[in-house]
Design brief:
64% of the residues lie in helices and 14% in strands. It has helices spanning 2-38, 88-119, 126-160, 177-203; strands at residues 46-56, 63-66, 71-74, 79-85, 166-168. Strand 2 (63-66) and strand 3 (71-74) form a beta hairpin. The longest helix is centred in the N-terminal third of the chain and has 37 residues, at 2-38. It is elongated, with a radius of gyration of 23 Å.
Length: 204
């Protein structure tokens, strides 16, 4: 039980630390992007998009100056950021994603409540099942909708953009679905363990 408490505290601290770090970096990134966009002459309706690239086409190369070596060293470009025509589907999906974001925040709160309950020795109880489900399933729903939104935007960009320098790569999923599916599986296994415990308690 002592090990569980220590791990629970570490997870809570890590969650809070990541939330603060991501929040600060997201705010700074959004501020810089807004400032950069304000200096560009763009159409009224546009979407920003990031594309993966396989690299420069044959014959193209790039380099950076290395101060320690006092020489140019080759570098590889893995992605580019640009703009495409406004896509109404992308904006419409934003209204669906927003409620999922609120549920994700609530899920993080449920996870913290779960860790506190576990540290008190309250493990195999129904409340913890609900807390686990409220944690993982909103995250999966948000991730799925965000992946779909990014895919629509990516396909739009692939159809609109033409480059003589870059070879655009195909769309890749942003999130690690394997880990999320494993957590969902463990959640349902935990739920089954709670049901078995309750049945055994009734038979005693």
């Amino acid at each position: 039980m002592k090990t569980v408490r220590i791990l629970g505290i570490i997870v809570i601290v890590a969650l809070i630390g990541n939330f603060i770090k991501d929040g600060i970096s997201g705010f700074i990134g959004g501020w810089n992007d807004a400032e950069a966009d304000s200096q560009l002459v763009l159409p009224a309706d546009f979407n920003s998009v990031s594309l993966s690239v396989e690299g420069y086409k044959e014959g193209m190369s790039d380099s950076l100056f290395n101060q320690a070596m006092q020489a140019n060293v080759p570098c590889e470009v893995n992605g580019v950021s640009t703009y495409v025509k406004h896509n109404s589907w992308v904006h419409a999906m934003g209204f669906v994603i927003f409620p999922c974001v609120l549920l994700v925040f609530y899920g993080v709160y449920c996870l913290i409540r779960l860790l506190i309950a576990v540290s008190r020795g309250e493990i195999l109880i129904r409340k913890n099942i609900r807390r686990l489900r409220f944690f993982i399933y909103p995250i999966m729903a948000f991730s799925a909708l965000y992946e779909l939104q990014e895919y629509v935007l990516y396909r739009t960009a692939m159809n609109e953009l033409v480059s003589s320098d870059y070879v655009f790569d195909e769309f890749h999923l942003k999130y690690s679905w394997t880990y999320m599916l494993v957590i969902a599986l463990l959640t349902e296994i935990f739920a089954q363990a709670v049901r078995i415990k309750e049945e055994n308690d009734l038979t005693i």
